[in-house]
Specification:
The structure is a homotrimer of 148-residue chains.
Chain A: H1 2-5, H2 8-38, H3 44-50, H4 63-91, H5 96-118, H6 124-147
């Protein structure tokens, strides 16, 4: 394991993943606070336990909760893919500079994507999404080159 | 690879991931059985192929299917993040005791989360969710300490 | 890292992951094109920025967009799990032939699953889903055997 830790590319990937992990957990908290705020409980047991007295479950998500869930969903489509692609990229011999650029830009783009989504800022959000996807695509290309 | 296999922390992580992988596949089967039971097909081709004769597709998920899908969705927000964080934690030098505690408690918490969700048990489910998220957060903190 | 790259099983896993990563990004583009085609914007800021003049946000997903989102959702339930299970399988000593069979068949099954979903072909889609899940299950079994 010491050999792995000496690899600067792995350390950069690990730090970026730590930031993205905290971001994902923060997004889950954000969704929870939105749900609590509007009393938008879908499961009856949630309304009973966490709602105001007499609160009942809704049959569909409140707009504000659905908005927060879309932030999480977009993360789910992108960040676990990065976790895998970034690690394989590093394990197949990424240069530290490449790891810093592609993992770093991806991480910044996804943090900015969440901020843009919360602020409902377009086309900023779309630019962040495309930037992250392009970083992932370049790392995939590098993996194929390194392996073949 | 033999060197990696000799690492007890990696073996613990691998076993926990195996349990969680089976759990995710079981949750997919659970959703499928709910859908079959209530005939809650959304895709017309599914209703034709797997429904009773004359079955038609619904325009929205049946409550029982939506409930099962929320179990899977909550897993998707937490378990792939664990797969990444746990592995990076182990690769950056986790002690076997730390891996046993944080990976083990996470795994137990997520299995219990699914059981609590199916039984609609609150606040048990919320406690399981928070326990799993705290384990993830501690591992992220350890990654940052190990790498810097 | 050079030691890892010399491992043929890791190289096979890396190539399969690269294919699946491109497939996931392509599915996101597919969903985006469906949304653009039917003008099915859910966020008001998206309708304003990317819609026709005067476009307004819908309160629920258009059928064609929901269909594309279900393709992505099914991927999210299966592919990140493969990323983790496949890597652990390789790191715990997978033979190259085993990696070629299980990672290769999984990858082909998931690409075929997307094609079957787009063409609304059942039971072809169900067969692809089960094939992929069985590959994952076998790799989980091998992990447990390798580690214990």
């Amino acid at each position: 394991m010491e050999v792995l830790l000496e690899n600067p590319a792995l350390r950069i990937y690990a730090l970026c993943s730590a930031v993205l992990g905290v971001k994902m957990l923060a997004s889950a908290v954000y969704t929870g606070t939105r749900r609590q705020k509007v009393g938008g409980f879908i499961n009856p047991e949630d309304a009973n336990t966490f709602g105001q007295p007499g609160a009942v479950a809704k049959s569909e998500e409140a707009p504000e909760v659905a908005h927060a869930l879309r932030i999480q969903r977009n993360d789910l489509e992108n960040i676990p893919l990065f976790f895998a692609v970034g690690l394989i990229y590093v394990l197949t011999g990424a240069a530290p500079v490449g790891a810093a650029v592609f993992c770093g830009v991806f991480t910044l783009a996804r943090v900015a994507h969440t901020i843009a989504y919360i602020r409902r800022a377009q086309p900023a959000r779309a630019i962040c999404f495309v930037t992250g996807a392009l970083c992932t695509l370049v790392m995939i290309f590098r993996i194929v080159v390194n392996v073949l």
